[in-house]
Specification:
Layout (H helix, E strand, L loop, with lengths): L2 H17 L5 E6 L4 H17 L1 E9 L5 H17 L3 E5 L2 H8 L3 H23 L5 E4 L4 H14 L3 H4 L5 E4 L2 E4 L7 H11 L15 H14 L5 H27 L3 E3 L2 E5 H6 L2 H15 L7 H12 L6 E3 L4 E6 L2 E6 L10 H5 L2 E6 L2 H7 L8 E7 H9 L3 H4 L5 H5 L3 E3 L6 E2 L8 E2 H7 L4 H4 L4 E4 L2 E5 L15 E2 L12 E7 L6
Parallel strand pairs: 1-2, 1-4, 2-3, 4-6
Antiparallel strand pairs: 5-6, 7-8, 8-11, 9-10, 10-11, 12-20, 13-20, 14-17, 15-16, 17-18, 18-19
Length: 506
């Protein structure tokens, strides 16, 4: 098998089995003009008919190497023009931007390149009728080995050892590496066999970046111990990918049993306890990623979370970075962002503005309201006006209906959240109980109890309004009314309370 056939077979296999290229797709190639990207362009052009995709290119001039960079740009333009390949060129002052953002020139260059790739890919999506757009970079087997070694030196786990992926989705863009099974030596042999010219970046031969140091200094030293160290590191990446995929399937199985509610994720505590630590760690990591916490979770945080999972304390909790928390509640492990359970800074007056009060005596009106039900963010409750009025003013029920004291009556109603000493006589129950005991019985999470709106007279709760405050479930989905003030079949005066949920302030 000659070198051209060898490289084409390796790339074709990667496109089919690792990447899953689709018919009528478009591949945007990151074309620097170096041997790797020139080889990639040539191979993809050769395979485009067989695999039914179109090709275009994008070149980024970082303006780091002065005239040399400009010459590379012109080389790429001429090559694309010669082959009939559409090419977009973007120019950036990489060093200046790196200084402004206080990151390394190497990191800024990477950000600029991928930003340019995404921009061109989006343009293709908007202008062409294609099934998918892929962004192809020319990473090869040697790059894979260098990446794995660099991550080992810095410290990594299985995910890091898996190295560069054949296919990766970032911000809706599919990035592919079709040359990942091809050695750098074979790429150069391919270019020679095909008579392809390419440019050389002089900075690649200077040990000024971490990757360059590994390529120029570390790997040659390792080859003195094992001549095939590059292949060995690439095999390690393949094994790590397989392990990663296995752990991912285990994690998916646990997530299939999880519940998602109001920006929180709930797991069965017993299930988490039985997991192997390696799987449990990945489940927790993914949970935080799902909620938006992608960085900052340390080994100490993982240890604290394990203590909660295995703790017999039914109310154990721990704080985590960026306002996230984990809590053990009623046999469930909840991961959530604390401010997701905050009403915001609402005064009692602001809450009261959302309560509409009506006193109804007309028989037709009384008949209508008996058919009312909660809907959307509105909640309704009905009470015997005489019972409440009599309780407030400490007068006989027979006299209560004769006094027109609505204004005086209304000012005694409070719309607020819980306070120490609150109590209620829940509908259907004899006697009263503390509000906190009701919350415990109803398994309302501690973080949510301060969100439940109440209508009270002093410390006595008339109505636990229930959920849909600030668009969030409070755990009291159906609410509760006070048994003492319920409407009787013969009630001829009804106090109708209508509550509209508060929207959280920004």
């Amino acid at each position: 098998m000659d070198i051209i056939e060898k490289v084409e077979r390796l790339v074709s296999a990667a496109l089919l089995y690792e990447i899953g290229i689709t018919d009528n797709s478009h591949v945007v190639i990151g074309l620097s003009g170096g041997a790797d990207s020139v080889c990639l362009l040539d191979v993809l052009m050769a395979l485009s008919y067989e695999h039914k995709f179109d090709v275009s290119a994008v070149h980024v001039n970082h303006q780091i190497r002065g005239q040399e960079a400009d010459e590379d740009e012109e080389f790429v333009k001429r090559m694309c023009e010669k082959n009939g390949i559409p090419c977009e060129v973007l120019r950036y002052n990489c060093e200046e931007l790196a200084k402004e953002t206080r990151i390394s020139t190497e990191e800024m260059g990477r950000k600029l390149r991928y930003g340019a790739f995404y921009k061109v890919a989006e343009k293709v999506r908007s202008e062409k009728d294609v099934s998918e757009v892929f962004i192809a970079t020319a990473h090869n087997l040697n790059d894979q080995a260098e990446t794995v070694l660099m991550r080992i030196i810095r410290g990594t786990g299985v995910e890091g050892l898996s190295g560069i992926h054949y296919l990766r989705s970032v911000e809706g863009n599919k990035i592919i590496r079709p040359l990942l099974d091809v050695k750098r030596d074979d790429i150069e042999l391919y270019c020679a066999a095909r008579g392809l010219k390419y440019v050389s970046d002089s900075t690649n031969f200077e040990p000024i970046y971490t990757r360059n140091k590994i390529r120029l200094n570390v790997i040659p030293m390792l080859e003195e111990i094992n001549l095939n160290v590059t292949d060995a590191l690439a095999r390690l990446a393949q094994i790590a990918r397989e392990d990663r995929d296995y752990f991912a399937s285990m994690t998916d199985a646990v997530f299939a049993e999880a519940a998602f509610m109001n920006g929180s994720i709930l797991f069965n505590r017993e299930i988490l306890k039985k997991l192997h630590p390696a799987v449990r760690r990945r489940v927790l990591k993914r949970a935080f990623e799902e909620l938006g916490l992608t960085q900052g979770i340390t080994a100490l945080h993982m240890e604290a979370m394990d203590q909660i999972i295995f703790s017999g304390n039914a109310s154990a909790s721990t704080n985590l970075p960026r306002g996230f928390s984990m809590a053990n509640s009623y046999g469930e492990i909840r991961i959530f962002k604390s401010d997701e359970y905050s009403l915001g800074h609402y005064s009692d007056e602001e809450l009261k503005e959302n309560l509409k009060i009506s006193i109804l005596r007309d028989k037709q009106e009384l008949s209508r309201i008996r058919g009312l039900s909660n809907n959307g963010n509105k909640r309704f409750a009905m009470f015997s006006f005489k019972k409440i009025f009599g309780a407030i003013f400490d007068i006989e029920l027979a006299e209560a209906g004769k006094i027109d004291e609505k204004d005086n009556f209304v000012r005694f109603l409070q719309v607020r959240t819980r306070r120490q000493g609150d109590y209620i006589s829940p509908l259907g129950m004899k006697g009263s109980k503390k509000l906190q005991d009701l919350f415990t019985d109803e398994k309302v999470y501690k973080e949510q109890r301060g969100n439940v709106p109440l209508v009270c007279i002093g410390s006595e709760v008339l109505w636990v309004i229930g959920d849909d405050v600030s668009g969030k479930t409070t755990g009291m989905k159906h609410g509760r009314i006070n048994e003492k003030y319920k409407v009787d079949p013969d009630s001829d005066e009804v106090l109708l309370l209508e509550y509209c949920a508060v929207k959280k302030k920004e």
